[in-house]
Each structure stands twice: as C-alpha cells, then as structure tokens.
Design a protein that fits this description.
By secondary structure, the protein is α+β, with helices and mostly antiparallel strands. It is built from eight helices and nine strands. A five-stranded mixed sheet has the order 2-3-1-6-7. A two-stranded antiparallel sheet has the order 4-5. The termini are far apart.
C-alpha cells in the first residue's frame, strides 16, 4: 500500500514562504547599518567625508541663504601629539568632535573630514551668524582634561554662506570656508573668519588649497 504523506498545512506554507523574505529584510538591515557605519568616523562618531558631503549638500539646498558651512582645524595638533602622545591627540579629537556635534544640533551636520580637520553645516540666518560662530568658538576653546591636567587647545575656524558667496555649490562653499580658516590660522586674530568671494577664488592644486602639505611650488610648464 502506498504511503500517504499528510497534506501541508496553510500555516506551514505561510511560514516557509516568509522565511526567504525575512532573511532578505534582515540582510538589508545589516547592509544599511554597515553603510551608515562606513559613513562615520570611528574615533569621533562624526560623519566621514562622503557622509558629510551628502548631508551638507542637502542642508544647503534646503536652507539656501540661511545655511552656514564651517571648516575647522586644530592649532599645532602635531605639537600636541608630540608632547602628550597620540592617545591624548585622540582624546582631543573625540572631545572637540562631541562639542561640534552639540553645537550643530540634531538638525545640523558635523564631520571629521581628515586628520584634525573638522566641518559642520547648520541653518543660521544672516543676523545670527556672528552669535552662532562666537558660540562655536567658546565651545571649542574650553580646556580639555589630559592626563589629569586641563590643557588649552586652539581651533582655527572659517565659515561660508551662500548669501556671501552667491552660490549653493558645496565644494565652492567649502573652498571659501577652508581659505578663511587658513587665514584665521595664519593671522591668529579674532575668533573666526567669514569667507568672502575672494576666499572662494583661492588657487588650488588637485582640489587642495595652496599652502597645504603637498601643494608647494609647481614646476613651470616646458
């Protein structure tokens, strides 16, 4: 006599059909988490360059002339590393990153672009810009505890707005903020620099402002 197997029950069929979908959704969640992690700097938790570029571009497009892009650089960071060690340097970066993120808020964007270079993008109408940048200066220049002692750390700040540079192009705004920051770092006067169109027109080599490491005098064309 032939063996008759029991007919599959509706619940069993539904569960079996759901398994591939569940696994696909789980894989998608893992992938999104990995992509999100890849867009963040592991030391500070801030966005990395790619994530910042995407988020800041969206913020500038949304707020237009009321947007503000900031570029920051730690003063004498190499000397700080040499004196206190790289663990202390990491501590400084993490602390300044946390302060920058708090300043930017949940509706702004904060990032570590490279080394000791940080950046932010926030909504700030023209009449609030000076107050907002002064607030940023105060937040970043509070002493940081290193090896049981409080150490003063300087930060050069440059900022650019579409209303001043007459563009919403993020690379153009970053170039202006970068050049303004470098001027602030070189002259060491005031608490920050607001970029002008002249800052945004600063010559670059392969996208890097002249004066940065690796952008020394270029050979003349033959």
């Amino acid at each position: 006599m032939a063996l008759r197997l029991p007919a599959p029950q509706p619940l069993a069929i539904a569960v079996a059909a759901a398994v591939p979908t569940t696994l696909w959704i789980a894989d998608g969640v893992v992938m999104r988490r990995r992509l999100a992690a890849a867009r963040r700097d592991p030391l500070t938790g801030l966005l990395a360059r790619d994530g910042y570029t995407r988020a800041a571009t969206q913020l500038v497009a949304r707020h237009g002339d009321h947007a503000l892009v900031a570029f920051l650089d730690i003063v004498d960071f190499k000397a700080l590393n040499d004196r206190y060690g790289h663990a202390a340097g990491d501590r400084v970066l993490a602390e300044l990153g946390a302060r920058l993120a708090q300043w930017a808020g949940t509706r702004g964007v904060a990032a570590r672009l490279h080394g000791d270079e940080l950046a932010a993008a926030v909504r700030s109408p023209a009449h609030r810009r000076e107050a907002r940048l002064a607030q940023l200066h105060r937040a970043l220049h509070q002493p940081i505890r290193i090896d049981g002692a409080f150490v003063n750390v300087g930060v050069s700040i440059g900022a650019a707005s579409p209303s001043d540079l007459h563009t919403r192009d993020l690379p153009h705004l970053l170039r202006g903020a970068d050049a303004a920051m470098y001027e602030h770092k070189r002259e060491r006067t005031g608490h920050y620099r607001l970029a002008t169109p002249a800052h945004a027109a600063t010559p670059t080599v392969n996208g890097r402002r002249l004066g940065r490491p690796g952008t020394g005098p270029q050979p003349l064309a033959a």
